[in-house]
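REQUEST FORM: STRUCTURE PREDICTION
Request ID: SP-0412
Submitted by: Lab K.M.
Chain count: 1
Length (residues): 232
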Amino acid sequence: MTIHGLNKTTLLDYPGHLAATLFTGGCNFRCPFCHNASLVMNPSSQPAIPEEEIFSFLKKRQGILEGVCITGGEPTLAPDLADLIKKIKDLGLPVKLDSNGYRPDVLEALLKNGLLDYIAMDIKNAPARYGETVGIANLDITPIMHSVELIKASGIPFEFRTTLVREFHSETNILAIGEWLKGVPAYYLQSFIDSHDIIAPGCHAHDDQTVFRFRDLLLPMIPGVQVRGLSE
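STATUS: Completed
RESULT:
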């Protein structure tokens, strides 16, 4: 399996765990505000880390690392994702998967085989604006809906999260997301940050006050909603 990035130590990517993060290339979405544009649009231009090097590192950190996060890009596009996860879990390390949720068949198989310990799924926007937000006109969001229900019923820890962008997320959209995800135990709002490697320059963050106002709008529907990366 081709890995295009390794963050050797993070306390942020896998909640409650000292983890390493692996980055896969390619994606089935084209979100204008994506902060890993090179990895999504032209993964072959990015350096590849041999799998042997990845596992040599992980073996050396056994007893120190508490988990591995697999992110992207979109990891569920990789045909050998399950094999990679099995090898990681054979080292005694739990695995967190980040996904956009557009391949529920892959998620279902991974869950059925007990290969995941935590899932984080991006909720790009309210259903009515999903296609626009991910850069695909007339997107069928049925797979997204399916993944949300799979994850909710998975029996493992999970979170949903939305990156807030001024051009895409309004109060109306936030309320619609709240109705959709009503009652989920973990939902995070995070503010857009311009990495200068985004797919469509010209996106902007909401001010902090607006982000926290959105949180307050969601609280009656999702009591566990939190803002990530900002201090009130």
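NOTES: The first strand starts at residue 5 and ends at 10.
Reviewed by: T.R.
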